[in-house]
Specification:
heterodimer, A: about 290 residues, alpha/beta, seven-stranded mixed sheet, globular, B: about 375 residues, alpha+beta, about 40% helix
């Protein structure tokens, strides 16, 4: 079992002929994702890799192929427009990989997708994978294995590090969701924790946060009051200085709020097993899995 | 991107925010002629991207053009928290009856621009929020409709019970909202907003932070970046498309991905070392980026050893290995390098390194322990 994507996922790739879009579309197809359409305005009627039909608009792609999920690999200036288009075309899930989307654009995108009942993941995220079923985005499929651990993270390569430890130690994953490192994102920790809590295929949840904002603190309160499954957590950025943007646009300690210490304390208070090092994930998860 | 006060003033003035006249000077004689034009007592303010300018001696009152020149002479070239002052702002000393605070921030929780206003202006707003939260009023603005007139007046009446002043302040809030949204700000702040004895309301300071993601589509704003106000190694890194932040330790770190880069710094600390920097080479695998990264890190004399931590996904580890080899051919790296590579094309990467007599590890903890031990041995 999994959350958000599975064998029923029918994917349309926005920006399929671009450099990143074409590379990752091949990888997704190779992994077994059901990529049913691509969109590049002006290239409608062509095919990608000889098999995937390309359309001029997402609406056309959805009506001709029954796509229910969109993934966006377009440059930052066009990313908000691509999200609006996907939301209007009637897909239920939009995953925006693009990094560098102006935050002002996101303040208008969010009410738009909400009113249409569309879930947005990202922007500035690696996407998600339900091992053995479907991958949408850029998470390397070969480091994942099917299993019962749900993963949610604000980061990309740090997620790979943790997933790799689990897989190497024989612990598989139900789904891994990268929610993205921007200040305004479509799906936050609480949304994903709620989905894992309701997913019968997920037994233990691993969440990886970082400095900046209060999403992790809010998530810890949610875990304490609502989540009935064991949760293990990690916070990156204990050595980060105040007031500096640590790569991710959202990873910044503003004034004295959003520090790693504050977040780790919130995790501990909510009964979340806190990793001191990425490798600690193995023992903490193993101790919480039913045999 | 932080703007200087004089740059923020220009954006405020373009939106119609009432502010005292004034201008920016790079030399004492320029400061003198601005003071002469303004007449009367002026304030000479250092233009640097740090708080606490006043305490550091970077803000001076001058009663005459000659005194303004003298103040500028003292402030220009002064170092405030490690940053050298290149410019001063010269403004008339305002006659202040009352100081308030008006700020607009991009709020992550509500996902909207949020106004924060307080009748307790002129001081650190975080302190006000902590000690006297009832002195702050917040309002999240729906960006689809903008700041509505009754919302602006409601906020303004919290600052000034007098309706004439409140109307003037409400207008300033609408103007500040325009500054914020038309320039893609993550912060636009007036501290203090003042009233004068004759009843005028105006902004005495302008603090603006622009969302870095706006700069690609706003070359006019990108031009406002002041490279002299930043650490030189960070400027060099930005030009090489690297995200680099200098820290005070001695273990240089080269990592792909921001989250892993932070986790790597944390692990260095966990094993008893101190990271010298944050450096994210990003997702693409371009050997040239690795060369630039090594050049920047090795230019810091504090660095005693360098750690590579690369988890290959999109980043190809063989490209990183090639970059390391190329760099060591282009310039001499005097300190030991510990390399951890795993993921995409790792077999090829290990071979490339082996051919030049270098070795790599595949485990992150082992690599960090090794580099910390090397630094310990060098100390």
């Amino acid at each position: 079992m999994s959350i958000f994507i599975d064998k029923e996922t029918r994917l349309v790739v926005q920006g399929i002929t671009g450099r990143d879009g074409s590379f990752h579309s091949k990888q997704m197809i190779e992994y077994g994702t059901n990529v049913v359409a691509g969109v590049t305005p002006g290239k409608g009627g062509q095919t990608f890799e000889g098999t995937v039909p390309i359309f001029n608009t997402v609406a056309e792609a959805v009506s001709k192929t029954g796509a229910n999920t969109a993934v966006i690999y377009v440059p930052p200036a066009g990313a908000a427009g691509a999200i609006y288009e996907a939301a209007d075309a009637g897909v239920r899930l939009v995953v925006c990989i693009t990094e560098g989307v102006p935050v002002m654009d996101m303040t208008k995108v969010m009410p738009y997708v909400r009113e249409r009942g569309v879930r947005l993941i990202g922007p500035n995220c690696p996407g998600l994978i339900s091992p053995g079923a479907s991958k949408v985005g850029i998470i390397p499929g070969n480091i994942c294995a099917p299993g019962r651990v749900g993963i949610v993270s604000r980061s990309g390569t740090l997620t790979y590090e943790i997933v790799n430890h689990l897989t190497k130690n024989g612990i598989g994953q139900s789904s891994c969701v990268g929610i993205g490192g921007d200040p305004i994102i479509g799906t936050n920790f609480i949304d994903v924790l709620g989905a894992f809590n309701d997913d019968p295929g997920t037994e233990v949840i691993v969440m990886m946060g970082e400095i900046g904002g209060t999403d992790e603190q809010n998530a810890a309160a949610f875990v304490k009051s609502k989540v009935r499954k064991p949760v293990v957590g990690f916070i990156a950025g204990q050595t980060a200085p105040k007031g500096r943007r640590m790569g991710h646009a959202g990873a910044i300690i503003s004034g004295s709020s959003g520090t790693a210490g504050e977040k780790i304390a919130a995790f501990a208070a909510a009964g979340i097993g806190v990793m001191k090092r990425p490798i600690d994930v193995v023992e903490l998860v193993r101790a919480r899995l039913k045999q | 991107m932080n703007l200087h006060e004089y740059q923020g003033r220009a954006l405020f003035k373009a939106a119609g925010v009432p502010m005292p006249d004034g201008d920016v000077a790079s030399t004492p004689s320029e400061a003198e002629s601005i003071a002469r034009r303004l007449g009367g007592t002026v304030v000479v303010k250092a233009q640097v991207h740090v708080g606490g300018r006043g305490k550091a001696g970077g803000v001076k009152l001058a009663k005459s053009p000659a005194e303004a020149a003298e103040a500028a002479e003292r402030i220009l070239g002064m170092s405030i928290k490690g940053l050298v002052v290149q410019k001063v702002l010269v403004v008339p000393a305002a006659d202040i009856a009352n100081e308030a605070y008006v700020g607009l921030i991009m709020d992550r929780d509500s996902q909207r621009p949020v106004f924060m206003v307080s009748p307790a202006g002129g001081i650190d707003i975080e302190e006000v929020a902590e000690k006297t939260p009832d002195k702050i009023r917040r309002l999240a603005v729906d960006p689809r409709y903008g700041l509505l007139p009754h919302q602006a007046l409601g906020l303004a009446l919290f600052l000034y019970p007098d309706i004439a002043r409140a109307r003037a302040a409400a207008r300033i809030m609408e103007q500040l909202y325009t500054v914020f949204t038309t320039n893609g700000c993550s912060l636009a702040e007036i501290n203090p907003l003042v009233t004068t004895p004759d009843g005028k309301v105006m902004a005495l300071d302008a603090k603006v932070i622009i969302d870095d993601n706006e700069l690609d589509r706003r070359p006019d704003l990108a031009l406002l970046r002041d490279d002299t106000a930043e650490e030189p190694s960070e400027v060099a890194a930005r030009r090489a498309n690297l995200t680099f932040i200098k820290l005070s330790g001695n273990v240089g770190c080269v990592v792909n991905g921001a989250g892993l880069a932070m986790a790597t710094m944390d692990l260095v600390k966990y094993y008893g070392g101190e990271p010298a920097n944050f450096l994210d080479i990003g997702g693409s695998s371009n050997p040239e980026k690795v060369v630039n990264a090594l050049r920047i890190i090795t230019s810091d004399p504090a660095v005693k050893a360098i750690l590579f931590n690369i988890f290959g996904g999109i980043t190809r580890t063989d490209d990183v290995a090639n970059g390391i080899v190329t760099a060591t051919r282009q310039f001499k790296v005097e300190v030991p390098i510990v390399i951890r590579l795993t993921g995409t094309n790792e077999a090829e990467a290990f071979r490339i390194l082996k051919d030049v007599g270098m070795t790599a590890l595949s485990d992150m903890d082992e690599a960090v322990r090794q580099v910390v031990a090397l630094v310990g041995a060098a100390a």
